Amino acid sequence: MDKIILASASPRRKELLKQIGVTFEIVKAEGEEVITSSIPTEVVKELSIQKAREVAKRCEGTVIIGADTVVAAGGQILGKPKDPADAMRMLELLQGKEHQVITGVAVLLTESGKVISFVETTTVHVFPMTRTQMEQYIASGEPMDKAGAYGIQGRFAAYVSGIEGDYNNVVGLPVGRLYQEVLAAGVDLLA
Asked: Rounded distance, CA 119 to CA 2, Å?
């Protein structure tokens, strides 16, 4: 039996893995994030591998899953907002436009030494928002711990006009692709 470890404390990633029936433990990656690129797909790929490797050094798992998600709009990477003013800046960039949600996933199969690494991109279209709507959303507190200052699965759903790609990727983890990629490598996360 494989011991599966999620190298993330994200409640959304935890729920997505539970939703598809994976039995796992959580060991939060705590190392310093080292970014050597400004290209969003490269950044998430780098960070997901760093997180998985850092956790693999500290625990006994046979499958270590690392992930990192960014929101990219107008050539900028939007992380988690520092404060309400930063959340407003991000929402102003997103409202009335489309942007990409990019998740890098790295899976270390410690017994074989194999590393599975991929990037999933979903385009999100956002309705125009008034300043009052953005202020009310920020006042809810919901955007403060989320990349791009919003959660598609929460109140922000009222402002999403559509998506192209994997909805679960926008929530935080493309679990369908994760399962299929690991299965193709000979490991069934649901076994």
From this structure: 24
